[in-house]
Automatic annotation (TrEMBL):
Key words of the record: ATP-binding, Helicase, Hydrolase, Nucleotide-binding, Signal
Signal peptide: 1-17
Name this protein carries in UniProt: ATP-dependent DNA helicase
GO molecular function: helicase activity
Gene name per UniProt: pif1_10
Key word ATP-binding present: yes
Amino acid sequence: MLSLIFSWASIVHKMLSCTADHAVIYLGSRLFAAGQAYIALSRGQSLDGIRIEEFDYSKLTGRVPCNGEALDEMIRLSDIS
């Protein structure tokens, strides 16, 4: 017997007026619209309910990070998961 867990998916722009208890948010290289990452991250009720997939720093800021240590730490953390 298999137990099933229902799940739903939604695009970021559909979530503009909504909040979510739990969310898996893709912030990788295929993120395309300006402000999309902010909208996605701000829909969560708390940080405990948010899981980030494929984090690409340049998609949040539009530029390459200037702090090399921070970039190294992001790479290290992505290798762990």
